[in-house]
Amino acid sequence: MSGGAGYPQRHLEHSDYYDEHRRVQGEWHGRGAELLGLRGEVAQKQFEAVREGLHQETGEFLRPRHSADRISPDRSEQSKGRSLYDLTFSAPKSVSIQALVGGDKRLVAAHDRAVRETLAEAESHSATRVRLNGANEDRTTANWIVATYRHDTSRELDPQLHTHAVAANLTYDGVEGRWKALQASGIYERRAYLTEVYRDALAREVRGLGYEIEPRRDSKGKDYGFEIRGVSNELLEKYSVRSAQRDAAIERFTVEHGRKPTDNEVAVLVRESRADKLAEIATEQVREQQQARLAPIERHTLQQLHANSREQFPGIHHTHSLATESLQFAKEHLFERNSVVRDHELMAEALRHGRGQIDLGKLRGALEVERAQGGLIRAGNNLARTNLHSGEAMGQRQCWPS
Q1: Domains of the chain, each with CATH number or no CATH
Q2: Across the chain, what does the average pLDDT equal?
Q3: Helix, strand or coil for residue 268?
Q4: What is the pLDDT of residues 116-157, one digit of tens each?
Q5: How buried is 23 (Cβ within 10 angstroms: 0-12 exposed, 13-18 middle, 19+ buried)?
Q6: Model-level pTM greater than 0.85?
Q7: Could you count the other beta carbons within 10 Å of the beta carbon of residue 3?
Q8: Selected residue with higher pLDDT from 270 and 291
Q9: Nearest Cα to 122, choosing from 138, 145, 139?
Q10: For residue 102, which of 156, 151, 155, 159 has the smallest C-alpha distance?
């Protein structure tokens, strides 16, 4: 986003409703934040400094280019300087319900841990632009500055556990020894993969707490994450007013334009369909209203699920064999239709297959073993499968995508 002055006060320090006695406290994350001495709780002055690209203590401008608005030579377009990126991690509805209405606060902590794991993975793909000596390419920096704010409701006051991770347009280029603008294209390209990293991490946490999970798919078999087994569809729909509003907006768009909206257009539709002003209500009243919507049998179900989870505590072991099995499934599925795939596409498919049962580090290790043994060949971020019987690499005769 461009601008963004006062963004935390207007959008992040309240949990999608206004309670004058309650504020959401932000927390700093990232190696870039550590380099600037930003740790623990986010202070307003600190946030505004990094939003503007300034050192929070000296006021010195950190980036060589100030990301000012620019007008094209023919004055037909104006390019807004970027100041912030907002990544949002939203828990499955059943997890939100069981955590916030069912009272299992362990699930809130599980969501936090899953977000931290995903942010660490996303940070490893942060980069900056290199323009020295005529170059025009990206260089991985693996550091960024992020402030996280966890919310627990939707604008319609449904239970909805989600975290805003707001990244500043800053990263430290260790090669050049200076702060520069964050090149976030690699992170954006991997958004489907990072979604699966979060889902897998959360599913592992949920299963580790003693809950069973089940996959969610649409009528065409497309994967839509997971839910806690035992939470009915009726209960999910009862607390999904915002989802219904989003789906209605998408349907109207499809009818009007004769096509489905793109991801960016969906994001715009979601923003436009929400209430302009936050509801003014105390947190205690929000919880009372959410509890009051439960039927007696639904309340009993949530209580029983919580009790059973405390008794089970299943021992979950994430082995290399499970990671290898999921990787082989992903290979068969993706290379059936493609000769070349991105590495993050393969990893995302493997995470979907083994959701909640594999560790990201072990999956990454399985991929490297597969490459070392000759099952895959790599060119940059692209992978091609090899025919080990004939020694001929599938896709070798084709041009590698850039």
Answers
A1: 7-71+82-272 (no CATH), 320-393 (1.10.10.10)
A2: 87
A3: helix
A4: 999 999 999 999 999 887 778 999 999 999 999 999 999 889
A5: middle
A6: yes
A7: 13
A8: 291
A9: 145
A10: 159
Tokens of 192: 């489907």
Instruction: State both tokens at 288.
Output: 């009372």
Rounded Cα–Cα distance for residues 248 and 224 (Å): 18
DSSP annotation string for 90-150:
E--HHHHIIIIIS--THHHHHHHHHHHHHHHHHHTT-EEEE-GGG--EEEE-----EEEEE
- pLDDT of residue 180 exceeding 50: yes
Q: How many CB atoms lie within 10 A of CB 186?
A: 16
What is the distance, to the nearest Å, from the Cα of residue 158 to the centroid of all Cα atoms in its chain? 20
Q: Which of 150-154, 210-214, 277-281, 393-397 has the lowest mean pLDDT?
A: 393-397
- Identify the three-state secondary structure at position 40: coil
Q: What is the 3-state secondary structure (H, E, C) of 314-365?
A: CCCCCCHHHHHHHHHHHHHHHCCCCCEEEHHHHHHHHHHHCCCCCCHHHHHH
Please report the pLDDT score of residue 71 as a whole number: 39
Q: Give percent of the chain above pLDDT 70.
A: 87
Measure Cα distances from 72 to 66, 77, 81, 131, 302 in Å: 17, 5, 13, 20, 58
Identity of the amino acid at 368: E
Q: Which helix (H) or strand (E) holds 162?
A: strand 159-168
Mean pLDDT of 58-82: 61
- Nearest-10 crossing angle of helices 191-208, 360-372: 120
Amino acid at 56: Q
Average pLDDT on 189-216 reads 96
At residue 162's C-alpha, the angle toward residues 158 and 163, to 5°, is: 145
Beta carbons of 374 and 386 less than 8 angstroms apart: yes
Residue showing tokens 């999904």: 240
Question: In the structure, how many helices (H) and strands (E) does the chain have?
Answer: 15, 16
User: Left (φ > 0), alpha (ψ -120 to 50) or beta: where does 360 sit?
Assistant: alpha
